[in-house]
Amino acid sequence: MFPGKSPDQAYQNFPDPTLKNWREAYYGTNYPRLVDVKRKYDPTGFFDYPQAIGTR
Questions:
Q1: What pLDDT shows up at residue 1?
Q2: CA 7/CA 31 separation, integer angstroms
Q3: Residues 17 and 50 sit within 8 Å (Cβ to Cβ)
Q4: What does the angle CA 28 – CA 31 – CA 34 come to, to the nearest 5 degrees?
């Protein structure tokens, strides 16, 4: 879709596997808080994919 270069921005519902800093691009400064939420509501990692919010 973007030959040669990924866009500067990212959208959560459009995962881009070539995006280098996807945590910051998708979630900005909210990522650490989202990790806390993920630990609480999905401790087993049921909702997981390569660019999902992690547990660390």
A1: 59
A2: 20
A3: yes
A4: 135
Q: Which long-range contacts (CB under 8 A, 24 or more apart) does 41-50 make?
A: 49/15, 50/15, 50/17
Q: Give the HSE-up count for residue 12: Cα atoms under 13 Å, Cβ half-sphere.
A: 8
> If the chain, 56 residues long, is cut into consecutive pieces of 10 residues, what is the mean pLDDT of each piece?
66 76 89 95 91 85
* Residue 45 one-letter amino acid: G
Is the CB of residue 7 less than 8 Å from the CB of residue 21? no
User: Would you say the pTM of this structure is higher than 0.85?
Assistant: no
Sign of CA dihedral 14, 17, 30, 49: positive
